[in-house]
Structure prediction request, 278 residues.
Amino acid sequence: MGSLYTAAGAYLDARAHGGRFLLRIEDLDRPREVAGSAARILATLRAFGFEWDGPVVRQHERGERYAAALDALQARGLCFLCGCSRVRRGGETRYPGTCRDRAASAGGRSAVRVRVEPGEIAVFDRLQGIYRQDLAAAAGDFIVKRRDGIIAYVLAVVVDDAAEGVTDVVRGADLLDSTPRQVYLQRLLGLATPRYAHLPVLLEADGGKLAKSRRSVRVDADSAAPQLHRVFTLLGLRPPGELRRAPIAAAWSWAIAHWDLHGVPARPSLPLQDPQDP
Prediction:
């Protein structure tokens, strides 16, 4: 339900403004990918009436683009090698700069970190308002290539957004605190910064994280309309009751015509009421 909710918000915002809706499979971490998961995602989206523009982009096929961006950063001395592991760092969330000024050691695997200079980054969020973060104090130098050689998502998404001409990003508020890292890389690479809108994250009624096992979305077009009706309600729309039984295309047409981002609750999380509640 949480994924459907966020995808629907992005889809409605794109379509209501005459924009293109792009689909990207973010599968950088191939060793951890569950076989068939990408196909199931596509099937679910189709079952719920999503239509995207252009081909599906798959990050595992775009390694050369990410390598070129990393080379550009390294050529300007904006990165350094780091051999620290989470265990060695004691599990702290902010990187203390342990390897920042050390010479690269021979042997062993190292991550690549980008140097973060002090200074506040302000992100204007269309829903949550101004979000400010001193990235150096909050996170420190962050990883752009992992020790296992996999490009970090934060770099890949910046490269992809620019390559695809993304102007607007609509996603969950759990990613708001990572947005300054993306903005920082955009500035270093001379790339445009999209507009952001972070939707509240859906929670269980007791405030716990939404459990997929309890709120799973069935890949069944026959049940799509009532679930979309519920999602539209959570997004601040007031869909009529008959939309629960309407064809999927009609449900989307109604929601696109009535979409208003400012009707979405402007807060980081939103309790999900019992599925039987109206």
